[in-house]
Amino acid sequence: MYKVSILKNSQRMNINGVKLHTKLRRILGASGLLTVVRRLIKLITPQSPQERERYQRFLRYKREFGNVLRYNLNDADHEQSKKVLVFSAGYPGVEPELGFIKALELAGCIPVVLIHRHAEFDLQYYTLAVKHFIFWEDFTELPDLSAAEAILARCQSVQELKEFILEDIRVGLYTVSTTLRRLRIGSIDLCDPQQRRMLIERLATSMCYARAAQSIVQEVRPQLALFGDGVYTPEGEFVDACIANGVNAISWDAAHKSNAVMLKRYVPGNIEYDRSSLSQESWQILRKMLWTDRHREQLQQELYDTYASGDWYSDFGTQFNKRFLDATAIIRELGFDSTKKTAFIFPHLFWDASLKGGIDLFMDYEEWLVKSVMAACGNDRVNWVIKIHPAHVGKAIQDGFHGEPAEVISLRQHIGELPPHVFFIPADSPISTFSLFAVMDYCLTVRGTVGIEAARLGIPVLTGGTGRFSHKGFTIDSKSCEQYLESLAHIQEIPQISAAQQELAERYAYGLFVLRPLSMTTITLEYHNSKTFIGNFRINIQSKEDWYKAPDLKAFSHWAVDSTESDYLAPVKTA
Fold first, then answer.
1. What is the per-residue pLDDT across 472-499, written as a single tens digit (0 to 9) for each?
2. What's the pLDDT tens digit per position in 91-129?
3. b/e per residue, 271-295, with b = 16+ CB within 10 A?
4. CB of 356 within 8 A of CB of 264?
């Protein structure tokens, strides 16, 4: 099978970036000394407080769960076992991921973890539970900057770059997405020297990973793959390579609340679907299911409880330390005219997974926001409220970022001072988003989940692109930028959606927030630390026998290994 160390004669390199020591890395990589040198450097380099804290956390994890993770749960004949290629989630995602790996063992699978050799800290975690590894460095060549520069020179626009595909892998898309994330900006300027240099480096790196991912998948020949987001390099290239080779790729991540995960199976034909969406098959089930007031009340309680407890998307602390206000208090605090209707604009984080999930009407999230706010400035017959995404707070802490949100900077540069009828709610506002629905007459988003929440209350939702929930019968979806902006110019004339449309939105919301999440009991995933935003992960297993009794892991492995359904969806009664 696979050993912890796999050696080839190809050049080895950590290709996270192309810096000054390329030649030295080439020499050390070819001689097999690169890993040794890195370890020596690590030994003589003092650990930072964060590194010491991470290591102490690992020791606690190993002490508490090491014994139960070491059991081999695959009782099947290894020759007949399915191989699962696992993209390393890295720290801290590795902690809950090990539980899913053991669940796949229960289903008769052999997990093979794809990881970088230099990720020694993460390797310590994986070796608690996994025996088989494969390393990026054994399949990657040095990035070819000249080739990347030539490709970029042929692209007349960012859109052309995004459409560039290499060996069935969307390297152009991942190049732009990763560059936006690294620079924390909303749009790419091909004439900007810094951005262009970054694009060349990212494109060269993406092409390296694309070729490596194809080789890895073809060598391992897995029947299944397990990964997290798949929106940046190298995870995106890995997922595309799996799908191109006919490998089901299972995506997992935290759901909208603690102790629940969202799962989606990616195969040819659904790669553009957001993980937090309903497949066509799931949507048909929801449309046919028996719908009663009990379902409506259950949905309302689910949303209210998660907001009230601060658990709503708590992996980024979106509702930590927020307070509920009634309509009167909100009007008084924001100061807008209560005789007018009120439209809310909900910007996405410009740079966060911004190129997946659908087709935008505008070039990017930045252009959509700027054009929407310009339209708002020109229509004073309505109160307009710009609500900056609260996830900025948690992501800034995780990234060690201390600047302003890119959306705020962009509005200052392109709009300047807002007119009196346009209001602004910052990311760190203490007002709970749940409270805002009481004063909301219209909701504007590209594809944010807030659109589902608003529509289920009968509020008209105007989308700036496809994805997640558009074109399902309960949103106002424009065919062009011009049509969208024309709707904003006369938004006050748009009536409340019909009862039938509202019910469609309720059904969709019920499917996404009640039926789609897999509730976890064996693995605890809780996010309540507003200082570090690192989750509290536990494995609630005491013995080998407990693994075989875990109902949540059985549900996960049955769906992942034995079914072909795109979505994990709890059983429902059809009408």
1. 999 999 999 999 999 999 999 999 999 9
2. 999 999 999 999 999 999 999 999 999 999 999 999 999
3. eebbbbbbbeebbebbbebebeeeb
4. no
Spatial distance between the Cα atoms of 520 and 259, rounded to a whole number of angstroms: 5
- Per-residue pLDDT for 45 more than 70? no
Residue 271, domain extent: 22-276+519-562
Specify the pairing of strand 260-266 against strand 248-254. Answer: antiparallel
pLDDT by residue (tens digit) across 279-324? 999 999 999 999 999 999 999 999 999 999 999 999 888 999 899 9
Q: How far is CA 174 from CA 141, 161, 209, 316, 322, in A?
A: 19, 10, 11, 23, 35
**Helix intervals (H) in 107-163:** 120-126, 145-154, 158-162
Please report, for the domain that includes residue 416, its CATH number: 3.40.50.2000
Same domain? For 477 and 528 the reply is no
Round to whole Å and give the CA distance between 104 and 561.
8
Same domain, 544 and 472: no
For residue 564, give the H/E element and its range: none
Q: Give the whole-angstrom CA distance, residue 346 versus residue 277.
A: 18
* Vertex 400 angle, CA 394 and 404, to 5°: 70
**Average pLDDT value over all residues in the chain:** 91
In a domain, 13, yes or no: no
Inter-residue contact 161 to 176 (CB < 8 Å): yes
Hey, what are 72's tokens? 């081999």
Sequence-ordered list of residues with C-beta below 8 angstroms from that of 94, at least 6 positions apart, any chain: 88, 122, 125, 126
The answer to whether the beta carbons of residues 481 and 362 sit under 8 Å apart is: yes
Enter the pTM of the model: 0.91
Q: Are 152 and 146 in contact (CB under 8 A)?
A: no
Q: How far apart are the C-alpha atoms of 487 and 492, rounded to whole Å? A: 9
- Can you tell me the distance from the alpha carbon of 269 to that of 267, in angstroms, rounded to the nearest whole number? 6
